[in-house]
Amino acid sequence: MDKLNKKELVRHILEKDDMDFEKQDIADILSKETVTKDINKVHRQSLSVGDRMADKFSNFAGSWTFIIGFGIVMAAWIVANSVLFTFDIYPFILLNLVLSCVAAIQAPVIMMSQNRQEEKDRLQAKNEYRLNIKSELLIEELNKKINQLLYNQEQLRLTIEQMQTKGKQ
Predict the structure, then answer these.
(1) DSSP string, 105-163
(2) Domain ranges for the chain
(3) Rounded to whole angstroms, how far apart are CA atoms 158 and 152?
(4) Segment 74-112, tens digit of pLDDT
(5) Helix 3-16 vs helix 93-168: angle between axes, to the nearest 10 degrees?
(6) In terms of Cα–Cα distance, which of 112, 75, 109, 124 is closest to 95?
């Protein structure tokens, strides 16, 4: 592919596309090196301790272990306060308070984890877009090379035919 086409492509990327490309992204696309990145590694490196804790909490809070365990604790609370104790009798106002507090803490932590996953998805989409552009460039280059080879082969065939025709005369 000639440089003019690459320049036009870069201009198109920078002017038309809504992806945020840095100069390094453009250089990677136009270079002979690979453009793929391990998004999981890049994402992991950008996480703070609090982010990792929130992700682990979200993973646990969304697991069957948590749901079953929490169901057992609630059933035990209800049975204990109905039969054994009387500090939180029906309608279990203290239990409702505890459940509300758990929900109030869980919701923002889970949303933070979802936001990080969304950012990771954006990184993945950007990486795939870069890879698609690079692939398109390489396919176009290969197509031009194949066309040139076919042209050269046809010229060689014509030359051989002319030589054979002259040899017969």
Answers:
(1) HHHHHHHHHHHHHHHHHHHHHHHHHHHHHHHHHHHHHHHHHHHHHHHHHHHHHHHHHHH
(2) 3-168
(3) 10
(4) 999 888 888 888 888 888 899 999 999 999 998 998 898
(5) 160
(6) 75
Structure tokens at 55: 């992700």
Query: Is 0.85 topped by the overall pTM?
Result: no
CA dist 149 and 155 (Å) reads 10
- Per-residue pLDDT of 112-137, as tens digits, reads 888 888 988 988 888 888 788 888 88
CA–CA separation, 29 and 127 (whole Å): 11
Query: Is residue 116 a contact partner of residue 109, using CB atoms and an 8 Å limit?
Result: no
30's tokens = 């136009």
Asked if 54 and 109 count as a contact pair (C-beta separation under 8 A), the reply is yes
Region for 157 from its dihedrals, namely left if φ exceeds 0, alpha if ψ lies in -120 to 50, beta otherwise = alpha
